[in-house]
Design brief:
alpha/beta; Rossmann fold; 2 domains; 9 strands
Length: 206
């Protein structure tokens, strides 16, 4: 794994996403100040990040959008295709299924799992839902490395431990529980209430 700050990786992913949008709009060149405006980061930080990935723009023409997007993708080692599973097909889980499969063609949720018999053996947004009891075998048989968890907090640790034992080493955690897992498992905690409370605090002038 590259020795690079997590915040830098976050910014590079944002740049890549914005560059992809520019490509869809048939934009061929972009200046650092425009990419900064689109991504929400300062221009000097954008220029520094792009120099770190080995791409330099032209004062006259800025950056070539297609070349820069490829350069960042290569730097991030973006694979051709990543298969992901989702565990927990409640309202949030179904919203994620709908959203994610429209965003990045290289990242695809291929299966969902739930313990509710009323949700098992059903298809949501084109994704089949299996019973949670089969998740460990599914991970092993399909070499799944990434999972999204949207289960109740009381179930989160048990499920996370089971899927890591089966081969998952990257988890996007939408539960309020801070998972206790081996150091080599990467966890992205996305607590929406934490974010909402933070916004409310600043809106109220705290």
């Amino acid at each position: 794994m590259k020795s690079i700050a997590e915040n830098t990786i976050n910014r590079l992913i944002v740049y890549k996403k914005e560059l992809g949008r520019l490509l869809k709009d048939s934009v061929s060149n972009v200046y650092s100040h425009k990419l900064a405006q689109l991504s929400g980061f300062p221009s000097h930080l954008v220029r520094r990040d792009l120099m770190n990935v080995g791409y330099y723009g032209s004062p006259a023409h800025g950056y070539k959008v297609n070349e820069l997007e490829k350069c960042i993708s290569d730097f991030l080692c973006t694979p051709d295709y990543v298969r992901v599973i989702l565990i927990g097909v409640g309202n949030l889980g179904r919203a994620i299924l709908d959203y994610c499969n429209q965003q990045n063609p290289k990242i695809s949720i291929i299966a969902a799992f739930d313990s509710d018999k009323n949700k098992v053996n059903k298809i949501y947004h084109g994704i089949y839902t299996f019973h949670i009891g089969s998740v460990q075998n599914y991970i092993k048989e399909n070499d799944i490395k990434v999972a999204i968890i949207t289960v109740p907090g009381s179930e989160a640790q048990k499920i996370a431990s089971e899927i890591v034992e089966s081969g998952v080493n990257g988890i996007v955690n939408f539960t309020p529980v801070r998972l206790q897992l081996p150091d080599d498992v990467y966890i992205e905690n996305l607590d929406m209430m934490l974010g909402l409370e933070k916004v409310v605090y600043f809106v109220d002038g705290g």
